[in-house]
Amino acid sequence: MRTEYLFTSESVSEGHPDKVSDQISDAIVDLMLAKDPEARVACETMTTTQRVMLSGEIRCRPMYDDKNEDWKFNGYWAPGARDEIESAVRRTIKDIGYEQDGFHWKTLTFENHLHGQSAHIAQGVDAGAEGSNKDEGAGDQGIMFGFACDETPDLMPATLDYSHKILERLAADRHSGAAPFLEPDAKSQVTLRYRDGKPVACTAIVVSTQHAEGYDEGDKEAELKAYVKQVVGEILPAGFLSDETTWHINPTGSFVIGGPDGDAGLTGRKIIVDTYGGASPHGGGAFSGKDPTKVDRSAAYITRYLAKNVVAAGLATRCTIQIAYAIGVSQPLSLYVDTHGTGTVGDDAIEAVILGNAKLGGLTPRSIRTHLGLNKPIYQKSAAYGHFGRKPDGDFFPWERLDLVDDLKAALA
Asked: Is the N end or the C end of the chain the one with fewer CB atoms within 10 Å?
């Protein structure tokens, strides 16, 4: 292995057009799960200049009359359901802070093209009737990865962790009024020098933030750049920044037109931002807009949970876990653990303990949802600044808990 190298990760803010779409899709997931914990949701959002469009499939009994067997329920919505969906969309955009001529929560055009879930998908995913041996199957086929490392207290890759935290701070200052010249859209990128596998210095910072008119020249531009440098200096560890750090702050110049007015947004287009910043493999599936029967989401959460607990238990300093499913089949096809040569025990031993852990109760979609408590309206908070490396808070971010550490230590340490 190389003893020294550079590595980079990026993040995007809550006002980035793709992230606006993610947050809207997850607002719909939360709306449905609040009404029906067994709701099925696959909601895609497209955003562009003064327009938001939803499409996809749902099954949520309080929201529509599902007795119509052809599942074409335009006209079969429950009273007020369409208004509730539209209100959730507009409220999400308002909370982000979009009140611009090109994208305004109150005046934009909204289209709802959601329709009923395919009966063919439902028959594969749903458990059998009482007395049947058929367990609930996975909502899709695919491979999912979880990852953890000891580079930060959050057990996340440092490049991504710092990229997220820079933008979270910019957003907090924008919302509080501490930085009134900021607008919602922004991107960050952090390049770190690694030596012997550990980050030791920052070689480059890129921050592009939407701003008010006039903050692209003269004293106002200098004020914005000084503010960004101050924020970055407070986020990165002491000594990481130096005279050798290269800065690119709004390198293209003016950034007044942004968000969905500047670039169309789609759900699920920022999967590397959502996960590990490129430091780990990704199975390819996005998270937002999907209820937790979709293993793209729930299995990615359980593998993060498992990898994080492995590292926190001191069994490795770096851990990648892969799991695979077939649609309609409850049991995973495979489980793979890789501690990248940092493990204190064999990777096969970790696999065996995970598969035999009574607290987990297995790795079926139902077991995952039960163990982590995923059938709840907890997802919109995850749709910006990463799904991982967040602080578990009540029902939110349960996959970040470290409640399996003692079990792993008892079995393996």
From this structure: N
